[in-house]
Amino acid sequence: MKLYSYWRSQATYRVRIALRLKGLKADLVTLDLLRGDQFKPDYRKVNPEAVVPSLIDGEGPPLVQSLAILEYLDEKHPNPPLLPKGLHARAHVRALAQMVAMDAHPLVVPRVRKYLEEKLKLDEPTRNAWLKHWMELGSSALEEALARSPAEGRFCGGDTVTIADICLVPHMITTKMLTGGSLAAWPNAARIFDNCMQLEAFAAEQPLKQPDAPAAGH
Question: How many whole angstroms separate alpha carbon 111 and alpha carbon 39?
Fold first, then answer.
């Protein structure tokens, strides 16, 4: 397998976590999204949307969109499972994952930041306020959903890691970066985040440990 990645990408972090949880290895191909590597013709042939991640696994077209890749990996390599057995529980953790992966994250990705800067001519403080707003809104929605959930355990769906946790952790890391490092406003999400980061799959694949991460973490 081959995984196209960028150190700071929430979406690629999700896939790296899943691969490690399942004991799978993929050759990492790093792209610098700020430099525009994703727009080069060779990569556009891999992913016409010019984003990461992209996963190449055997024959057939490259796989794109992190949530689709997570479910592909779960169906092909079912142990350990990333979705609960119950129909309602599966829908619940999918919804938690989508709150951050589909509603909050798309508003803070590099192409949006670039548009705010170059097309709308927004200064850096205004752009940062935009990013902070959407990440905090997503965190608050996630926190309220977790508080209402009947499931009790170390993770979003109980005592087993699911796709909800795989999406929660990258989201909360970005939120920490934008809010001065504190997750105190979201205690349930923070508790789950801390529990996840005790696991190797989450800790070893975090952004600052990636080969293309700047030494200073900026």
Answer: 11
Domain boundaries, the chain: 2-80, 87-203
* CA angle, residues 64, 67, 71, in degrees to nearest 5: 100
d(CA 7, CA 188): 26
Specify the fold of 87-203: Glutathione S-transferase Yfyf (Class Pi); Chain A, domain 2 (1.20.1050)
CATH fold, domain 2-80, is Glutaredoxin (3.40.30)
Residue 185 CA to residue 190 CA, distance in Å, equals 9
Q: What is the pTM of this model?
A: 0.94
| pLDDT for res 181 | 82
22 burial type by CB count under 10 A (0-12 exposed, 13-18 middle, 19+ buried):
middle
